[in-house]
Structures are given as structure tokens and as C-alpha cells.
Amino acid sequence: MRLALPYDLRPDPGLPMPAYWDPRLDRSAAAQPPGGGIRLLAAAEGYWARRGLAVEPGQVLAAPGAEPLLLALLASTEGEPVLARPSAAWQAPVVRLLGRRIHTVPTPAEGGGVPDPIALMETVRRARADGGDPRLLVLSAVDDPSGTVTPPELLHETCEAAAEAGLLIVSDETYSDTLHHRRTVLLSPAEMLPDHTVVVSDLGATLVPSSVPAALARFPGTVHGAAWRRRTAEVLAALRAVQSGPVGAATTYVLTEPAEVTEFRAAANRLHALVAAAAAKVIIEAGAVCRPPQAAFQLYPTVGAAGLRAAGLEDRLAGALGRRVLGGQRFGDDPFEPRVRIDTGALNGATETERRIALAAADPLSVPHVAAAVAALAEAFAEPLGEAGVSGPAGTGSRGGGG
């Protein structure tokens, strides 16, 4: 049986295996209990505290990946979720496993994975008038698919709208440690609505290898938050969704963020910033509309070739590049808009050796295999556009990562 969706819908960071990972895989360690063991959770508390989100024992929880974690979070609360449009491609399939209705709200032109506050209020009002029961808002201030960051003032307005609508917030902060520039200001909804926000983070974007399922959740320090955490841990236990002993030991180590871990992350962010900026440049020069990336390792361009839809552009670019490309329909966007996510990590190299060379290079863009990959990307985008060019001025059309 062929799956209708790719197995892994997350962008590829294109990084080599961190040197610190394998030595910390304790083969003798017992499997973690559901929700994480004492040492792992203590390390997670320090992880959140260093990010300005102070925690008390009992506020955090660990899971083998963001997908089972979100599933457990949703199964532990009632009501229907509201998702940004576009949103991370893995989120809606998880919600559908529970058979719940999904409400979507477009994100504004400023970028980021946070719904427009006015549209959010109107969507919730209409849904409830039609008998729906939206109670939970899933958002991300650092967006997958576009790699853009929500301006603080917009995030604040959306949080106020969510509070007025009586929505709890699940804030996906997987990419919050991948900012390309220090001048980019990033806030968490947990700083604005601490009693109503659960923060989740998939560690595969930064601290652990991307192939390793490891995620964290931070719950509000309230009676409701403690009950939600307890129910979530019970669901994880019922699913037997626990980390293996070796992975738990290594994750505990990286969550303390010693120098070798933070140095690897800093080098990775530098590589992501340079390669993503170069990729965006050649895509724009080919005639597509693409917001400049601010974080992570993905772009979300829109092309304007006449009659081309997202699925068609996905297939055409995947064939031209020889790797996975996801069309906008995977992110809840308009399938008639020719929009795709490009994983810029793939430009770092196809082998472990190539990726190590790119990561260590003073000028990654001068590395032959990286330069060749960027050139191939430019050629691939020139083909779908042809002479049609873009369908309108940059930034026009329906909302999405491209415009």
C-alpha cells in the first residue's frame, strides 16, 4: 500500500550527525517512563528556564516526537482545534486521527505561523454559531513552511484574541532556536498568556539528530495545567509512546546544553542562514515570489506559471531536483496556488561527508557541491516559470508563504 503522504513531513536540516550524540547513547539505560524520567525532566526544566520560561517540577513532559505529543495533548482535552493556514504539514493529519473538525485561519502578510487576530475571532464566532466547538489554537511564531517569524505586536494581538475567544494555546516552538540574525525579535505566547499556553518543541530541529524522535512540552503552572499534563502522560502511557533508554540518556545530556552542543547549534544556524538566503535569492531571480527567510531551513515560494497548481509544481520540482518537495496543499493552503516548500538543508550535501564539509566551511556557498546545488535549484525554478513569470506583483494573491 502506498501512503498518500510522505512519511516525514518535516523540513530536512541537512546536518551531519553531531559528534556529541553517539558517545552519549548509554546502551545499558532502561527505557524512559511515559512522560520522561526524573533526570530527563530536570534537564528539560533547565532548558526552558534558560529561555526565560521558568518552570517548577511537574510542569514539563517528554515524548518520542512531536506527533505523538500533539496527539496526546489533543486527546487529553475536549473541543476542536484551530490551525493557522498554512501550518506545519504534520499537524492536520494528527488531528484527523481523533476525528475532530479542524478550523483554519489565514496568517497575515507579515509572515509567521500565527493566525490573523481579526480573522481568528470571526472564524471562532462562525464556527460556534454553526454548532462547532473550537477550544484550542495551535500556532507557531517561527513558521513551517515559510521560515518567517511573527512580529511581536502581531503575536500579542493574536494572543489577546485567543484569550477573548476562550481558546487555550499550543505553541509549537520547534524552530525558535534557529533564528538567522540576532536582530530578529521572537516572543513566546507563554510570555503573554502563561496560564493558558502549552509550549511544545521537537528537538530534532536543533539539539538531537533530525532522525531521532524527541520532543518536550511545558505546561502552565496552574491546577488546570497540572491536570492536562497528567492526562497527556496517561495517553502516552496507553500508546506506549516512550523514549528508549539510550536516546533518553543522550537527550538528557544535550538538554543541559554544554559548549559542544551550543557550538554545533550556532554553526548550524550560520549555515542555515547563508544557504537559505542564497536559495531565496536565486528563486526570486527566477521570477517567483518568496519571503526572505528569518529562521530554520525552509522557504515557501510561489510561482505564477499559467495553469500550474500546487500538486503539479510539487511533482515537477521533485522530479527536477531529485528529492522531496511539498506543495502548498500539504500545509492547508489553496491547492490552486502554485506554492511549494523548499528544504534548504538539502543543499548542504547528500552525504555525511559533504554535510560536514559544508558545516565547517568559512564560506559554505563557495563549497563546490553547495554551489552546484544552489545552481540546480535556480535551474529547476526557471523551468516551471518559463516565460509566464509571476501572476501578479510580489505579495499579491492568496495568503501563503509566497505572498
Task: List the SSEs and their pairings.
Elements lengths: L37 H12 L10 E4 L2 H10 L4 E6 L5 H7 L5 E4 L10 H13 L4 E6 L12 H13 L3 E5 L16 H4 L4 E6 L12 E4 L4 H17 L5 H11 L3 H27 L12 E2 L10 H12 L4 E2 L12 E4 L8 H9 L7 H18 L18
Parallel strand pairs: 2-3, 2-4, 4-5, 5-6
Antiparallel strand pairs: 1-7, 6-7, 8-10, 9-10
Helix pairs in contact: 1-8, 2-3, 2-7, 4-5, 9-12, 10-12
Describe this structure in words.
It is built from twelve helices and ten strands. The protein has 403 residues and is of the alpha/beta class. The longest helix has 27 residues. The radius of gyration is 21 Å and the shape is globular. Strand 5, helix 6 and strand 6 form a beta-alpha-beta unit.
What does the average pLDDT come to? 92
The ordered string of helix (H) and strand (E) elements is HEHEHEHEHEHEEHHHEHEEHH
Principal-axes geometry comes out as globular
Q: Can you tell me the residue ranges where pLDDT is under 50 for at least 5 consecutive residues? A: 387-403
Largest sheet, strands/sense/barrel: 7 strands, mixed
**Strand pairing plus helix content: what structural class?**
alpha/beta
Fraction in helix: 25-40%
- Give me the count of strands: 10
Number of helices: 12
> What quaternary form is this?
single chain
**Rg computed from alpha carbons, rounded to a whole number of angstroms:** 21 Å
Proportion of strand residues: 5-15%
Question: Biggest sheet, strands in spatial order?
Answer: 1-7-6-5-4-2-3
Q: Which properties best describe this structure?
A:
single chain, alpha/beta, three-stranded antiparallel beta sheet, 10 strands, 38% helix
